[in-house]
Write a structure and sequence with these properties.
- Strands 1-3 form a two-stranded antiparallel ribbon. Strands 2-4 form a two-stranded antiparallel sheet.
- The longest helix is centred in the C-terminal third of the chain and has 33 residues.
- It contains 6 helices and 4 strands, in the order βαβαβαβααα.
- The chain is rod-shaped and about 110 Å long.
- By secondary structure, the protein is mainly alpha-helical.
- It has 2 domains: about 60 residues, no CATH class; about 70 residues.
Length: about 170
């Protein structure tokens, strides 16, 4: 037969013996004002109702999680603490110069790519005549060589950008 408790003092003693963290004033408040602890119509407390109350609203004396609501609260608090720690670590790494904003990196890379493109284009425009002279070729083909060289530069830069985009996507 299920155990019955006549009053809050008996409930508190039972729960304390079972390893639950509870005080008499808290138990009275949970029963009379908050409705967390429910008595039967005869104003006695059944063991099942008392254990359900403990599992849902109390924590263990040893700190071990027990019950759905208490366990969820503990997990949520742990997750919040971990997220705060990760945020603090990122801020610290940023302050120490280990990390920089992604937008800054993208801007620097685009500046470098433009500079590289301009340099390669200048080499193609100014170097074509030298290449023709070096190979003792036909000077009338300088424009064709320049166009080919510029196309090669664009292809090289397209490949450069494609690899960067693949790395960013990963």
């Amino acid at each position: 037969m299920a155990k019955l408790f006549k009053n809050i003092d008996e409930v508190v003693n039972y729960l304390t013996d079972e390893g639950w963290k509870i005080s008499v004033p808290s138990a009275y408040r949970h029963w009379s004002k908050e409705g967390k602890l429910r008595a039967r119509k005869d104003r006695k407390f059944s063991e099942g109702a008392v254990l359900e109350y403990a599992a849902t609203h109390l924590s263990r004396i040893d700190g071990a999680p027990e019950g759905t609501l208490a366990e969820e609260k503990l997990r949520a608090e742990i997750e919040r603490i971990k997220a705060d720690a990760a945020t603090r670590e990122l801020k610290l790494r940023q302050l120490t110069g280990e990390l920089i904003p992604k937008s800054d990196v993208e801007f620097m890379l685009s500046e470098r790519a433009v500079a590289l493109k301009n340099y390669l284009d200048a080499i193609a425009r100014t170097g074509s005549a030298r290449v023709v002279k070096i190979v003792s070729g036909d000077a009338t083909k300088t424009n064709d060589l320049t166009a080919w060289w510029l196309a090669m530069n664009r292809k090289a830069l397209d490949n450069y950008a494609r690899h960067l985009m693949e790395e960013v996507d990963e």
